UniProtKB/TrEMBL annotation:
It is an enzyme of class 1 (oxidoreductase). Its cofactor is heme. Its EC number is 1.14.14.25. This is Cholesterol 24-hydroxylase. It is a single-pass membrane protein. Pathway: Lipid metabolism; C21-steroid hormone metabolism; Steroid metabolism; cholesterol degradation. One of its GO terms (biological process) is cholesterol catabolic process. The keyword DNA damage does not apply. Belongs to the cytochrome P450 family.
Length: 500
């Protein structure tokens, strides 16, 4: 009797599972029918869609952005990608880019940005500025953050930019004397992390002396883990990946614990009436108090944005500088022109005043062209909640639209000879790109720290050109590596010597 009852239960359980799988497959088929009029590469499988391709890309040295570029050239400015029942539309159409990115009604894609709330189960970016879905929640945070990035405050950071850059110059002095090749990405990474720690949180890590910083390693590990987490939904299931998963969770926890310690220390200092640095953290705490947002939930938001600053800010500026150094090393004529401009403006000045930043016309063009070829944060996405016609194709609503700055900025129809490094594209008299150049995104969700980042990049690069001559070590790779942000695969290995 019992065995018969168990048999019935097993039968009904299997029947239920079969019906559920069948129903889901029918739904996936319905989604395919709904979107398959949009061109796109063949799916790897009915259920997985293009996931195997992305998974292979994440585990190999191949850059998935180059694959997106190939597909854009083959399938046009609008094409489709599948993942189970989920569909994303890749768009490289300036009019649609303008319409969607410039409007607050198109929220960020919840599939990507909600996933970044956690990283392998540990709270990561949470509901910070980058990941906030609700426009009102985002706007409230942005209102609190904005005063900390005002032009008046950023102008006051020139001392920090100069001080941290001088540490790099001192370090390069020692290297130039030894005539030893050096990996420039490692060095500029130290500078940008030192800058953001000091400018934003009043903490001096001094990474040129503290060469084995767990904080720096944690940022690196989180970026690495983020790539696997987003592109391979099965990554954490395989035992061979468990070590990486645990390392990423530990790194995430370290970042948040460090942020909590720094924030609490500053709060206590303010409450005790102590003198505190007039940095970004003080400004945020001051504005938060005025806005009466000091509960536990808002404290977690502060930690979310603490992590966001390091993930979205420090690494991207370091990568931009590395790519700029790489391209200057590859193009002697551009190098000489940039150096001549720096020498004319700075002469023998040690510290760069704020007023001089606007005079670096050609250097600014070099940095903009660097971001065109190498947008360190290569794209963004929005949720299409209504039907829309893009480039003559009807796109049904309830899907994600992905805008890849890497792809649009390398398409020949927007930029002549697109793979050529040519700062003249950004000359004041050159034609301006129309909604196809957006390394910091566009519209209301544009990057809050872009002015901070470009001021820092100008100071570091100008000092480097003023004080040293550098050349690339022959034989190194100029490929791009994807570790959550795009960086030079070789790290840019240079020979450094004093200016003659």
């Amino acid at each position: 009797m019992i065995s018969e009852w168990v048999s019935y239960m097993m039968f009904y359980l299997l029947a239920t599972v079969f019906c559920a799988v069948l129903t889901y497959c029918m739904y996936v088929h319905h989604v395919h029918q709904k979107y398959d009029h949009i061109p796109g590469p063949p799916r790897d499988s009915f259920l997985l869609g293009h996931i195997p391709t992305f998974s292979r890309g994440a585990k190999s040295d191949n850059l998935v952005q180059d694959l997106f570029l190939q597909w854009a050239e083959k399938y046009g400015p609008v094409y489709r990608l599948n993942s189970f029942h989920y569909v994303v539309i890749k768009v490289h159409c300036p009019e649609a880019t303008k319409t969607i990115l410039m409007s607050p009604k198109y929220t960020k894609d919840p599939f990507v940005y909600k996933r970044l709330f956690n990283l392998f189960g540990k709270r990561f970016l949470g509901n910070g500025l980058v990941t906030a879905m609700d426009h009102d929640d985002w706007y409230r945070q942005r209102r609190i953050m904005d005063p900390a990035f005002s032009s008046t405050y950023l102008r006051s950071l020139m001392g920090t930019f100069n001080e941290m850059s001088e540490r790099l110059m001192d370090h390069l002095e020692e290297i130039a004397d030894t005539k030893t090749p050096v990996i420039m990405h490692d060095l500029v990474n130290c500078v940008t992390l030192d800058v953001i720690c000091k400018a934003a949180f009043g903490v001096d890590l001094n990474l040129f002396k503290q060469t084995d910083s767990p904080f720096q390693k944690a940022v690196e590990q989180c970026l690495k883990g983020m790539v696997f987490y987003l592109r391979d939904p099965f990554f954490r299931l395989f035992p061979k990946n468990w070590k990486t998963v645990q390392q990423t969770k530990d790194a995430t926890e370290l970042l948040r614990k460090t942020g909590n310690k720094w924030i609490q220390k500053r709060k206590t200092a303010i409450e005790n009436g102590e003198d505190v640095p007039k940095d970004i953290l003080t400004q945020i705490l001051k504005t938060a108090e005025e806005e009466n947002v000091n509960n536990t939930k808002d404290h977690e938001l502060m930690l979310d944005n603490f992590v966001t600053f390091f993930i979205a800010g420090q690494e991207t500026t370091a990568n931009q500088l590395s790519f700029a150094i790489m391209e200057l090393g590859r193009h002697p004529e551009i190098y000489k022109r940039a150096k001549a401009e720096v020498d004319e403006i700075l002469g023998t000045k040690i510290n760069i005043p704020y007023e001089d930043l606007g005079k670096f016309t050609y250097l600014s063009q070099v940095l903009k062209e660097t971001l065109r070829l190498y947008p360190t944060a290569p794209g963004t996405s929005r949720w299409l909640h209504e039907d829309m016609v893009i480039n003559g194709l009807k796109i049904p609503g309830s899907c994600a639209v992905i805008f890849s700055s890497y792809v649009s900025q390398r398409l020949g129809k927007f930029f002549k000879d697109p793979l050529k490094f040519d700062p003249e594209r950004f000359d004041v008299n050159a034609p301006k790109p129309y909604y196809c150049y957006y390394p910091f995104a566009l519209g209301p969700r544009t990057c809050l720290g872009q002015v901070f980042s470009q001021m820092e990049a100008k100071v570091v690069l100008a000092k480097l050109l003023q004080r040293f001559e550098f050349s690339l070590v022959p034989g190194q790779s100029f490929d791009i590596k994807d570790t959550g942000t795009l960086r030079p695969k070789s790290g840019v290995i240079c020979n450094i010597k004093h200016c003659s």
